[in-house]
Amino acid sequence: MRQIFIFFSLFFVVCIMAQGQSKNLPDNVVLTFSKNKTHVSTSETGDLIINVSKKDERKFKANGVVRYSDFGARGDGQTDDMDAIAATHAFANQHGLSVKADKGANYYIGGKDRTAVIRTDTDFSTAAFIIDDTDVENRNAHVFMVSSSLEPFKPEGISSLKRNQGKIDISLPGTCLITVTDSNVKRYIRFGPNQNNGSSQTDIFIVDKNGHVDMDAPIIWEFDQITEITALPMDETTLNITGGRFTTIANKAESKYTYYSRGIAIRRSNVIVDGLEHRVTGEGDHGAPYGGFINVSNCAYVTVQNTILTGHKTYRTIGSAGVPVSMGTYDISLNRALNVSFVNCSQTNDINDGTYWGLMGSNFCKNLILDNCTFSRFDAHMGVANATIRNSTLGHMGINAIGTGTFTVENSTIRGRTLINLRSDYGSTWEGEFVIRNCIFVPAGGRPVSASLFGGSNSGQHDFGYTCYMPERITIENLKIDDSSHPENYQGPAIFANFNPKMKDESYKEEFPYVITKEVILKNVTTASGKELRLSDNAFMFRNVKVKSE
């Protein structure tokens, strides 16, 4: 009888402990509820231990909101508040409560390997956040991770896919973001100082519960076989992140490709970031590059608006080809993301200052929009399918892209070396068309250069993993070219730069033929120099292009 009593007593205690702990938490977070006071601590292994008193739990739920000070954040600019910040979000996520920073607080975030997971509306308010990267335990640990509570899964029965396929024979629990990979096929085999062996063929697209593909972001590759496939259910509600004055104290690591990911990672669909500011201080004569303070990946429908960001200082290292290169370093990084918009955004430093790298970079994205933005650069490395830049100003690094679909630039001022730079390290390829309306082009920001509208190069001797195209059709309407500052013997702006100086006649043979533009439509293109717009220095290469002036 005594043994039975002990057994049931132990069973009762275990049940109470199980009820006191919350589920669906990150692996390194333990959240319990008891009569003891609310307290945050760390275990010997670095786990975050959070206990919330029953009284505080009732109060927080009644308020519908929790603050960082509720979990011990000091906000004095000196005490490391990262554990308290992470604990606040962990509790809020469990109960569906919003989070608010304390107005006027100054939160210091040191180099501890800790990430605060955001799954509820968060108002950073006017609070300041100091992110100190001078001594970081894990440079890959984001400070904040905006994520979904929905779990990804492996859909069954899909062994192949066709380009532009509109329907997949699959039934899903709801609208999902599908990511597919064929590791047997390599694309984007990079050429030049940062050469590489390419990336596995990958694609990302949206499918509804009945298997219909969202054709605004179509499948762009043929998948004869699929080595990996993942479906991530998409949140239907919008998560809002507002305010916040963030300052990064820059790392002082060796200048090599060891990217720091110390910012806000967005891994959930349907997110709005509004009114955030990010600045950078403490940059010296060396440092490792950054992978984006705002880092958006594997999600769709993300809008960043009314936000101020900062370009990072450019450092140099030795590239994969064994020669010195400038390292890309970003405050915005987009990877495998669909329908991402930046609206009414700018940067703190001069967009024409070449000592700072271009603000943004992207890979494998679709439907990117800049609207009313002032940035030093737009860039699509490993392809973008459809992009729009409107009501914006682009600085010294201009517009750089390869990809597919339609690229529209309207009501904007471009101050890059060319109006559009088709990235030569990926074959200067754009399979689709460009539409340019009501724009101003200031070649090289007003420095004396022989201006070209479309720049790039392709020798036809390198296999990039795909056929390379120039835009099939280019439409330019109401373009003002401010080429008032130009070199001696200037012949006037060219539509195309000399993409292959060695291609002078029919004797040149391309091992991997470059498909040239078919048609250029011009309407009301004017130059400050008064010189006529001409085709190219390489008249032979572009001899079959039809130029129509209206």
SSE inventory with pairings:
Blueprint: H1 2-20, E1 29-34, E2 39-42, E3 48-53, H2 54-63, E4 65-67, E5 76-80, H3 82-95, E6 98-100, E7 106-109, E8 116-118, E9 122-132, E10 144-146, E11 176-187, E12 199-207, E13 228-233, E14 239-249, E15 264-266, E16 271-274, E17 277-281, E18 291-305, E19 308-309, E20 316-318, E21 324-326, E22 330-343, E23 346-347, E24 360-363, E25 365-371, E26 374-390, E27 393-410, E28 413-414, E29 418-422, E30 430-441, E31 452-455, E32 468-469, E33 473-481, E34 494-496, E35 514-515, E36 519-527, E37 534-536, E38 546-549
Radius of gyration: 26 Å
Helical content band = under 10%
What is the first-to-last residue Cα distance?
Answer: 100 Å
Main beta sheet: strand number and arrangement?
26 strands, parallel
Number of domains: 4
How much of the sequence lies in strands comes to: 35-45%
Count of helical segments? Answer: 3
Tell me, rounded to a whole number, the average pLDDT.
94
Tell me the number of strands.
38
Q: Could you state the oligomeric state of the chains shown?
A: single chain
* Unreliable sequence segments: 1-21
The assigned structural class equals mainly beta
Please state the overall shape, judged from the principal axes of the Cα atoms. globular
